Amino acid sequence: MKLQKIYANVQGRNVLIEHDQHTYIYIHDQPKELPHASSKSDDRLQNINMMDFQSKISMVLRTQAKQQGIHFPIKKGKYGVEITVTTQRPSTEVPIVETAKAIIDAVNKEVVPDDDNIYYLKIRVQRHSSRSRTNKSSPSDKIALSINDLTIKKTVVKLQELCTYIVPKTNPSLVNGCDEEFFYPHLELYPHYVWQALSKDGFQMSRANESSVKLSFTGAVQSKDLDNMVKCYLPIMFQTQSLKPSNVVELELFKVDDPNAKGSIEMHVNCNSMQP
Length: 276
What we know:
By secondary structure, this protein is α+β, with helices and mostly antiparallel strands. Helix content is 22%, strand content 33%. It has helices spanning 48-67, 96-107, 185-188, 190-200, 226-238; strands at residues 4-10, 13-19, 24-27, 44-45, 79-87, 118-127, 141-149, 154-164, 173-174, 210-219, 248-257, 264-272. Helix 1 (48-67) packs across helix 2 (96-107) and helix 4 (190-200) packs parallel to helix 5. The chain is globular and about 55 Å long.
C-alpha cells in the first residue's frame, strides 16, 4: 500500500500523517482521549432509563458469574469486550458509539475493575426491518456480550442473548446551578485540523450504505479508555461527509500500551453496500 505523507498544523504543532487517499489514515502522535464534559464534583443527574438498562446488563452478568463461581469484579489485567447488537430501531435511536459506551459503563467496576483495563473492543450492530415487529411495547433489542482475558486467551464471562431496550449513553444533566459543560479546544478541534490537511491532499472516501471502522491506538495509553479515545478520532472520518455515524455498523478498537513509543493512531474504513 502506497502512502502519502503530509503534515497537519495542530495548534502550532506539525503532526505527520500518512494516508492512502481513500480509506486509511495513520497519525504520528500520542493518542488523546476526550474527558468528561463536566466535573465529577458537579451535581449530575444521569438518565434514569439508561441506568436501568445498564443495571440489567450487570445484574445478568453477576448472576451468570455466581453460577460459574466467578467473583466480580475480576482482577486487573488486559481484557477484550465483544458486543453484538440486534435491533429493529434506526441508527438515530441506537448509535454505535453511544451504545458501546453505555454497555462499557455497565461493566465498568461491576465486572471489569476499570474500563482502562479494556484493550480491545468490538461492537457490531445488526438491523432488521421494523415491519416484522408486531408488539411495539415489548423489548425490541438483543445484546450478545463476551468478556475475554487477552493474556491467557480465555473467555471470562459470556452473555449469549439478552432481550432488552437499549438506551445509549447521554451526557448527564447538571443541576444546582451547574449548567456549563467543559470545552476542550485542543481536543475537540483536533479532527478539524487533521481533516484540513487531508482534504487539501486529496483524501476522498467512497460513499457506502454500511461501513466498518478499525482504530488502533499505540503509545502511553495504559490509563486511557478506548471509548473516550475514539471520540477524539472517529470525527475525522465523519469530516469526509461520506462516512456518517448512521452507516457505521461495526467498530473495532485496539490499544497497545508502549510508554516509550512516539505514539500513533491508525484508522481504516471498510465500505460495503449490504443494505438496499
